[in-house]
Amino acid sequence: MLSGWAVLLGRSFALPWDVVRTWPRFLDQLFRHGVSAIPIIALAAVFVGLTTAVQTSYQLLGIVPKYFVGMGVGRMLLIELAPVFAGFVVAGRSASAIAAELAAMRVSEQIDALKVMAIDPYRFLCLPRILATAAALPVLVVLMEVVATAVALVAASVLGVSTATFTYGFTRFVMMRDFWGGIAKSLLFGLAIGASGCYYGFSAAGGTEEVGRAATKAVVTSATLILLFDFLTAIAVFGR
Amino acid sequence: MIEVRKVSKMLAGMAVLEDVDFVVPDSGGVVILGRTGAGKSVLLRVMAGLLAPDSGVVAFDGRLLEFGPLADNSEAMEQLGYVFQGGALFDWLSVVENVALPLMESRRTGRRKAVEAAQRVLWRVGLADAAGFRPRELSGGMTKLAAIARALVADPKYVFYDEPTAGLDPITRDRVCGLIRELRDTESRASVVVTHDLETVRRLGGQVFMLRRGRLLPVSDVRKEDYEPECA
């Protein structure tokens, strides 16, 4: 299995890249896995912001100064919640879609057709998809952070934390390392999502039932890798 | 010349190919007849480097095909056109884009020239009117013709046809057979056709083999009696 992943990544990313031919395919995939995910990411962000504000207020109000709500919400969102939630949403949406699409191409011999046309299917199909999910996820995470923070700000004011107090806690204690740490891990999550989808799509063998199986495996593997990379970046970036 | 030497392949514990040994000359045609499940498509896939044999070798003009995840047979594949049984056309591209794809992606031809070449080949196979269609809008016969056009567009030396007439009505079957014969006889493109259809074998002629129980046997005169007991 590890050799299969190595072949997939090696053949997809080996130089030289044909940038001119890859670019339009990358943009197409970026639209599918990035731009098209904006509504669901925004919707998820609203609920993440609401829930985070309510939970943080419940745990901190009356114990510590109110501006700690702004700090707690900000750091939770930037370090953990936005990257992981957005990662899971994109994993459920894109890893399954990529795996199902490529598995369907595998069972209908379209990937074999590329090989006999002397077109490298890894470069043609995998490279733009993996690049697109890796490029889209950090942007979607920033979107989720912005929307969730704005919603949390409003929710906290309803719960008795003024906008000025919330903003003070947020700006005083949230550091750039929190932001960049979250972005770095989301980049890894994006790579994991695209690669999982491509790996299981390409590995499909047999009939149409393999299409569904490939999609399921891709989502499960993406989610597992997201948790693993989350832990590893927690140690690497925030470990001391 | 394509040489297939002592190729054997087991699938699900069954010997699908056993010491298959034959040569596809630079011009002329080879037709491989066999009942459904005899291993014809497996043989074609091995010959195109898509499936690794358990033993034996395949060579395109003396160059051995590589098998496995790191195999790169692009040089040999540039000489090959392959017509898949189901067409294997890409759903997200129109017919003309499907046909132009090998030129644009493999031969690095510019889009405009590739599309012009694709339109010429589509006209030749009688599918010019369907150039803008999506594969899902094509009938079975049109799909086969589009797949043939895609196989021909890069001017290959060899063309493999996997069941080119399966599921076609008699008129379309005659049209496809006529096209294959014309390409083979007038343009000297070597062809390998695998089929279960005796009528197709009769219409194509050429060097005929029968694949029976994994063995490839030369057939000088295919008679219904030779073939039909296998189906029983």
UniProtKB/TrEMBL annotation, chain B:
GO terms for molecular function: ATP binding; ATP hydrolysis activity. The keyword Transport applies. SMART domains: AAA. Residues 2-232 form the ABC transporter domain. Keywords: ATP-binding, Nucleotide-binding, Transport. Gene3D superfamilies: P-loop containing nucleotide triphosphate hydrolases. It holds the Pfam family ABC_tran. InterPro entries: AAA+_ATPase, ABC_transporter-like_ATP-bd, P-loop_NTPase. The keyword ATP-binding applies. PROSITE patterns: ABC_TRANSPORTER_2. This is ATP-binding cassette domain-containing protein. The lineage of its organism: Bacteria, Bacteria division WOR-3.
